[in-house]
Write a structure and sequence with these properties.
This protein folds into two domains: 3-72, Arc Repressor Mutant, subunit A, CATH 1.10.10.10; 84-254, Beta-Lactamase (2-Layer Sandwich), CATH 3.30.450.40. The strands form three sheets. The chain has a six-stranded antiparallel β-sheet with strand order 7-6-5-10-9-8, sandwiched between helices. It has a two-stranded antiparallel sheet with strand order 1-2. The chain is an alpha+beta fold and 260 residues long. It contains nine helices and ten strands.
Length: 260
């Protein structure tokens, strides 16, 4: 039950604890055990345990199957984007994505990090009669996909390590890090990634990073370039890649990012 606090203000103890947990975990991207949260917040485990379980049940926190540590889930970012349209990555990207698809005759999709996977949060289909595209909400393998490696390559070292740990735990597979790190360095050095699709014949994935106002990676915009056997595509792959570069630069600028 809510109670009246000092000077006529209202207090909701459970809600206050939930906010404290979110703020604490925001500063600890590697996550924390309930016992660690309790110690850092000066509260008992009993005070926080049920709140953490409820937050996990509703998708605001996620628990590592490997370490039992809790981290903030993507749902909070999703709510923040929907509640603050000016900061909505998908909304900022869609005009550019629509124009990009028209200009090159190919589909494109926007991927954000989501724990140990990537998540397609926006897509624009090829305006023509033939094309290839991913579904909205599709889960993306960070380790092997073009979008995933762009996300890993341009994220901070700490976030990259965290995503790799989560990916390994979620998919129950080891990650051979030395060759992957060499690959990610190559992606960073060239500023994008491009390779034959590991899933679909005839598709070459091209992906560039999108950055936010704080200079941190916001997502990856990707073209699954479908090469038609009759050569009738309106734009060749090299030109499509440069057009994608321009689009990600424009989206980043809309988000407030300034190139250094």
């Amino acid at each position: 039950m809510n109670r009246i606090g000092p000077k006529g203000t209202y207090a909701a103890p459970a809600l206050e604890k939930a906010f404290e947990i979110i703020e604490l975990l925001a500063d600890h991207p590697d996550g924390a055990l309930v016992s660690e949260m309790a110690a850092r917040l000066g509260r008992s485990v009993g005070e926080l345990f049920r709140i953490v379980i409820v937050m996990e049940k509703h998708g605001y926190l996620q628990k590592s199957a490997k370490t039992d540590r809790y981290t903030v889930a993507y749902k909070i970012l999703d709510l923040a984007y929907r509640a603050t349209p000016a900061q909505n990555l998908a909304r900022a990207a869609m005009p550019e994505m629509q124009q990009l698809a028209r200009d090159i005759g190919q589909s494109c999709h926007l991927v954000v990090p989501n724990g140990g996977h990537g998540l397609v949060i926006a897509r624009e289909e090829n305006p023509g009669t033939r094309g290839f595209s991913l579904k909205l909400g599709a889960s993306i393998d960070l380790i092997v996909s073009c979008s995933g490696q762009v996300i890993l390559a341009f994220s901070s070292a700490q976030n990259t390590e965290r995503m790799l740990d989560l990916a390994a735990a979620l998919d129950d597979r080891p990650v051979d890090r030395p060759p992957l790190m060499r690959r990610l360095k190559k992606v960073r050095d060239q500023g994008f990634d491009s390779r034959k699709s590991p899933i679909t014949y005839g598709v070459t994935d091209i992906s560039f990073p999108v950055f936010g106002f704080d200079g941190e990676l916001a997502g990856a915009l990707t073209i699954p370039f479908l090469e038609l056997i009759d050569g009738s595509q309106k734009v060749k792959i090299d030109a499509a890649r440069e057009r994608l570069r321009d689009s990600t630069t424009a989206i980043s600028a809309t988000l407030g990012h300034h190139m250094s």
